[in-house]
Design goal:
Elements: H1 2-11, E1 13-15, E2 19-21, H2 32-45, E3 53-57, H3 62-72, E4 76-79, E5 91-97, E6 104-110, E7 119-127, H4 131-142, E8 146-156, H5 161-167, E9 172-182, E10 185-189
Parallel strand pairs: 3-4, 3-7, 7-8, 8-9
Antiparallel strand pairs: 1-2, 5-6, 9-10
Length: 193
């Protein structure tokens, strides 16, 4: 997605060896017009798939996921990272190691929002080693729902998230694929959409 790649080049900052900071349009301040475009691209790709729910993980997946859900006209569910006393029954959980926070946490979705008829599209802001998406796949499978794909805004293709998800039999669609960070320079490879 050309518009997204331009924005990453203009506004992204490389931190250390393998982190990209995009807090002025995606992970903190959010550009809703760009999110709306992103929503359209994923919705176009999955228009005929019969998606019934979009699932993401809080917090930075929520903005793109909501626009995908709007474009597909289905509900969006975000997995919660913290225990909540209002979540009392039928909680589905998975352990997720956070790449950026370097801690393992329990993420959860209330079972009442997913059932065996659901066809789910997972959306997330970044794909690094695939742990967040893998946790969501585990939760969705516990509900008996089908995962039809994982849609990623920014994939760091030099990490092994895509291989992990494909080994689980799940299709990955990334709107920007970063090949490497070389001498402070960001290089893309061909994206999926
Ligand atoms: P994974 O679970 O695939 O290893 O990492 C994906 C999750 O870690 C995403 O949900 C995202 O929040 C966070 N993440 C991974 N890499 C980056 C990065 O380079 N920049 C930012 N801002 N978040 C990242």
């Amino acid at each position: 997605m050309e518009l997204l790649e331009e924005r990453i080049l203009n506004d992204g900052n490389i931190l250390g060896e393998n982190i990209l900071k995009v807090d002025n349009f995606l992970t903190h301040q959010v550009d809703y017009k760009l999110m709306k475009e992103i929503g359209q691209v994923f919705a176009h790709k999955y228009a005929e798939a019969g998606i019934t729910k979009v699932v993401t993980i809080e917090a930075s997946g929520i903005a793109p996921a909501l626009y995908v859900a709007e474009a597909l006209d289905v509900p969006m569910i975000f997995a919660k990272k913290h225990k909540n006393i209002t979540m009392t029954e039928g909680i589905l959980t998975a352990q997720v190691y956070s790449f950026t926070k370097q801690v393992t946490s329990t993420v959860s979705i209330s079972g009442k929002f997913l059932d065996a008829d659901d066809k789910v599209l997972i959306i997330d802001d970044f794909l690094a080693n695939g742990q967040a998406a893998k946790g969501l796949i585990e939760i969705i499978k516990q509900a008996g729902s089908k995962v039809l794909g994982v849609g990623i805004v920014i994939e760091k293709s030099f990490q092994d998230g895509r291989q992990l998800l494909e080994s689980l039999g799940v299709e990955v669609t990334s709107l920007a694929r970063i090949k490497n960070f070389e001498n402070g320079q960001l290089n893309f490879m061909e994206a999926d959409a």
